[in-house]
Description:
This protein is an alpha+beta fold.
Amino acid sequence: MLDRSVAILDAVEGGARTLTRITEATGLTPSTAHRIVKALEAHGFLQLHGGFGYRLGPRLLTLARLALEDLPLRDLAHPALSRLAGSTGESAQLFVRSGDERICVDAAESRRELRTLVPVGAALPLTAGSAGKVFMAWASDLDRDRLIRMARKRTPETPTGSRLREELRQIRDRGWAESSGEREPGVASVSAPVLGHLDVLEAVVSVSGPTIRIGRFRARRYAPAVLQVAAEIRHSLGAA
Length: 240
């Protein structure tokens, strides 16, 4: 029963699906799929979305929020993340990878009136933005090739294809990434990897703000602070 329920949740993870599409994706019989879908809906794990079918329900969001709040990485990283926001005057975020997305597990907001907001729990693409590029740069060769093939332009500034591949090579060499208007117009960011044992990528720390303050040509001045905080979080993880 649990395996079948998880299969159904996986089937709707990418967006609303009709019962017929859920049955096709999971290989369950129509009667079994219907019975489990209705049970998941009754408990708030699925929600009927008009004529589009079923999508993930609000109870999952609550559980995800509670899980993120109890994440040890979040607790260890938060003091350094707050210092980053304070020293740069911009918003700071901590991301971990989940499949082909990056999840914001902690954030410290800028106090400026014009600022970027990434709520805890937000799922953003791996294939756009500086944090996503760090995840790609530290991925295995096969995974990186797959993600490059997946990449599509979200804005005119989003790098794809050979341009993206070359950027990822440069990011791995210098140890940090920047983006300007690549995921959202008007939003810029600088990111660095948080490396763990044997230099395995554990998370990515970012500072983000409007392009008028960070921008492509100003990004370099933020890099030392982001790299320093990434190193502090790595040290905290090693000491835990």
